[in-house]
Amino acid sequence: MSRIPQCFTQAKASGKKLLVAYIVNGDPHPEATLPTMHEMVAKGVDVIELGVPFSDPMAEGPVIQKGHERALVHHTSLKGTLEIVKQFRATNSHTPVVLMGYANPIERYGYEAFAKAAAAAGVDGLLTVDLPPEEVVVLKDALDAVGLDNIFLLAPTTTVERARKIAAHATGFLYYVSLKGVTGAGHLDVGAVKAKLEEFGQLTTLPVCVGFGIKDAVTAKAVAALADGVVIGSVLVEKMGALEGQSTASIASAVGNIVSDIRQAINSL
């Protein structure tokens, strides 16, 4: 079993809402990733989503697309991402790490080989943006065999029937995309989020975290009041890109400051 269910169970018992944070491995340079992961945890992140750089990140808006591009300049790969997780595990054995990416690198690696390597590195779950439930059976079997969670996206346009099918294949948690469009786009409609979460809550017992459009402490607090967890990403990647030429310590500290503000807002519920 991965660390994810225990993390949510403990949070629920204590009345805590989880903070999930996304960064791209290798962005803005490879040396920045590991210190930033540790700093995020120190400032209140409960689950790390580590983006696997890809040349065609179709679900991402301009901010995270640029993060992928910066990482790929340094030839950051799926194997390199697994190595970073392994290094992270040398001093952190409790924080769940989810890899978020696209199907092509995983298919090239081989589902079974990838699942075994990911488990050995200390990965807890996988969110494959472009792999629908109809095509996930073989990968899911490989993940199940090594105790990794298979995490799916739900969208504002997801029907009840579709959500039920997705939930049947998912473990760990479900990630609700609060906006139509790509990451970092649009403005959050809290009322619409509330209505969809109530709808999905009747279909599954899995926790639901909400991301896309959460850019500051105010929106994070509003969403945390409705969901099991809040996902932030674009705001962190944007800051890392703005500090591309700065020291690793400066990058990690700046990201940590954003995390701290959002964590405090969520805790004030």
Strand and helix map with partners:
Elements: H1 4-14, E1 18-24, H2 30-42, E2 47-51, H3 62-73, H4 78-89, E3 97-101, H5 103-109, H6 111-121, E4 125-128, H7 137-145, E5 149-154, H8 160-169, E6 174-177, H9 190-201, E7 208-211, H10 217-224, E8 229-232, H11 234-242, H12 248-267
Parallel strand pairs: 1-2, 1-8, 2-3, 3-4, 4-5, 5-6, 6-7, 7-8
Helix pairs in contact: 2-4, 2-12, 3-11, 4-6, 6-7, 10-12, 11-12
Short description:
This protein is an alpha/beta fold and 269 residues long.
What does this molecule look like?
This protein has one domain: Alpha-Beta Barrel (TIM Barrel), CATH 3.20.20.70. It is 50% helix and 14% strand. The protein is built from twelve helices and eight strands. Strands 1-2-3-4-5-6-7-8 form an eight-stranded parallel beta barrel, surrounded by nine helices. About 2% of the residues have low confidence.
- Under the CATH scheme, which class? Alpha Beta
Distance between the termini: 30 Å
User: How many individual domains?
Assistant: 1
CATH superfamily: Aldolase class I
Please tell me what the overall shape is.
globular
What characteristics describe this protein?
269 residues, alpha/beta, TIM Barrel, 8-stranded parallel barrel, 12 helices, 50% helix, 14% strand
